[in-house]
Amino acid sequence: MRSLTRRFNQWTAKLLDLPQDVVMDLPRMTLIGNMQLYIENHRGVLHFSSDELKLALSKGRLEVYGKQLVIRAILSEEVFIEGTIHDIKYIP
């Protein structure tokens, strides 16, 4: 059933020319070098420190590891961090 729903959402996105991240409620990440990361479609901050950020997603979580991490902006579904980013992990 999940596979059928996923295929339907992908088909709908293509038919209506919509970004798949919007239709399938996926996170969108923009990484600039290893110094800035902008994440859309998150569901909240689970943990934050100067070397680790954990975000809840609609399907899993996202973990960002680095040094001197700072949250520059945070909104209900968007977060912008700066620092030296070493690793990004998606955990379903």
UniProtKB/TrEMBL annotation:
<dbReference type="InterPro" id="IPR022477">
    <property type="entry name" value="Spore_YqfC"/>
</dbReference>
<dbReference type="InterPro" id="IPR038705">
    <property type="entry name" value="YabP_sf"/>
</dbReference>
<dbReference type="InterPro" id="IPR022476">
    <property type="entry name" value="Spore_YabP/YqfC"/>
</dbReference>
<protein>
    <submittedName>
        <fullName>Sporulation protein YqfC</fullName>
    </submittedName>
</protein>
<dbReference type="Pfam" id="PF07873">
    <property type="entry name" value="YabP"/>
</dbReference>
